[in-house]
Design goal:
Elements: H1 3-17, H2 26-39, H3 45-53, H4 59-67, H5 80-96, E1 102-108, H6 114-126, E2 134-141, H7 144-152, E3 154-156, H8 157-161, H9 166-172, E4 173-176, E5 179-182, H10 184-187, E6 190-194, E7 207-212, H11 221-234, E8 235-243, E9 256-261, E10 264-269
Parallel strand pairs: 1-2, 1-7, 2-6, 7-8
Antiparallel strand pairs: 3-5, 4-5, 8-10, 9-10
Helix pairs in contact: 1-3, 5-6
This protein binds S-adenosylmethionine (SAM).
C-alpha cells in the first residue's frame, strides 16, 4: 500500500466515523481492507482506493469505514459496571422513576449486541418489578454488519463463553446447531438502530442511563468533547452515564462528575444548586 492510499483511507475513515488511524496502522488497514478490495474485484488495495477516490460516496466507502471499526465486545464486559447497575444504579433509577414507571436506556456503539443484551438480562433477572413498566431501550452503532448480528441475537460458542454466566446462558438462550440464540422476549426489549455518533442525532427520548463504552477512545479530543456535550442534551439531569474503563469525562466536559459505585465508575451531570433529584450513589 502506498502512502497515498493510506492517506486516502485515513481521511475517509476520519471524516465518516471520526476514528483516527495513526501512522503505523498501515498493517491494520492492509489486513482489514485487502479482503474487501478482492471482494470488489480489485487486484490491490491501491487500485481499490483509487476507484473510491474517483467515485461518489457509496457501498465501497461505507464498507471500508465499517471494516476499520473495532467491534470487540463481550457479555458483561469488565463486570464491575454491571455489578454497579445491579446493586446501586438501577435501584436508584427505579426509585426516581416510581411515579412515571418509565425508564429510557441508550446503549451507543453497541457493536454486535452483547452489551445491551447483558443489561436486558440483568433487568429481567434482578428487577422483575419492571415487567409492568415501560422500558425504552435503544441500542445503536455505526456499522450495519454488527447491527444485523445484534438483531439476530445469535452467538457462537466462543462468544457466549466470553462473559456470559452459564445459568444465564441456559435460561435466556436456546441452542440452534452450533449457535446460541437469545430468547425473543429479551431480544424484543431492544430497538437496534443505525446511528453515527458524529452525524446529526435523530430525536431521542430523555435517557435515564446512557452507556457509551469503548468507543470514545478512537476519537480525537474535539470529537470526544462534542459527543459528551450531545449526550448531556439527551440525558435526564439525574441520568447516569457509563464509559469504558479507559475512558473518562475528565478534562473533556466539566459538566459531568465521576462517581465511584462499588468497584464500578459512572458519571452524572453536576447537579443544580438545589441538588434536587440527584442520585445518592457515593461520590
Ligand atoms: C470496541 S466496540 C465497543 C462495543 C461495546 N460498547 C463494548 O464496550 O463492548 C466499538 C463500537 O463503536 C462503533 N463505532 C465506531 N465509530 C462510531 C461512530 N462514529 N458512531 C457510532 N458507532 C461507532 C463500532 O462500529 C464498534 O461496534
Amino acid at each position: 500500500m502506498t502512502p497515498k492510499t493510506f492517506g486516502y483511507i485515513r481521511q475517509l475513515v476520519l471524516t465518516r466515523s471520526a476514528i483516527v488511524l495513526e501512522p503505523g496502522k498501515e498493517y491494520l488497514v492492509e489486513s482489514r481492507l485487502g479482503p474487501l478490495a478482492k471482494v470488489h474485484g480489485f487486484a490491490s488495495l491501491d487500485e481499490f482506493a483509487d476507484a473510491m477516490a474517483a467515485a461518489p460516496f457509496g457501498t465501497m466507502h461505507r464498507q471500508t469505514v465499517e471494516a476499520m471499526t473495532t467491534n470487540e465486545t463481550s457479555f458483561f464486559r469488565d463486570i464491575h459496571p454491571f455489578e454497579a447497575l445491579k446493586k446501586t444504579l438501577i435501584p436508584e433509577i427505579i426509585a426516581r422513576k416510581a411515579a412515571s414507571r418509565q425508564i429510557n436506556i441508550w446503549c451507543a456503539a453497541a457493536s454486535s449486541g452483547q452489551e445491551p443484551y447483558s443489561v436486558a438480562m440483568l433487568l429481567r433477572e434482578h428487577f422483575p418489578e419492571l415487567a409492568s413498566w415501560k422500558i425504552t431501550f435503544i441500542a445503536t452503532d455505526l456499522s450495519n454488519a454488527v447491527l444485523a448480528k445484534a438483531r439476530s441475537g445469535r452467538y457462537g460458542q466462543l462468544e457466549v463463553n466470553r462473559g456470559l454466566p452459564a445459568p444465564l446462558m441456559v435460561k435466556y438462550f436456546t441452542k440452534d446447531g452450533t449457535e446460541w440464540v437469545i430468547r425473543d422476549d429479551i431480544r424484543n426489549m431492544i430497538d437496534f438502530r443505525e446511528l453515527n455518533l458524529i452525524e446529526k442525532w435523530p430525536l431521542m427520548p430523555v435517557f435515564d442511563l446512557v452507556m457509551i463504552r469503548n468507543v470514545l477512545i478512537y476519537f480525537d479530543i474535539p470529537t470526544k468533547k462534542q459527543i459528551l456535550k450531545n449526550i448531556r442534551q439527551v440525558m435526564s439531569p439525574t441520568g447516569i452515564l457509563m464509559l469504558g474503563g479507559a475512558e473518562t469525562t475528565m478534562g473533556l466536559d466539566d459538566q459531568f462528575e465521576r462517581v465511584q459505585v462499588d468497584k464500578g465508575v459512572a458519571y452524572r451531570q453536576i447537579s443544580t444548586p438545589s441538588g434536587a433529584g440527584r442520585p445518592h450513589v457515593a461520590a
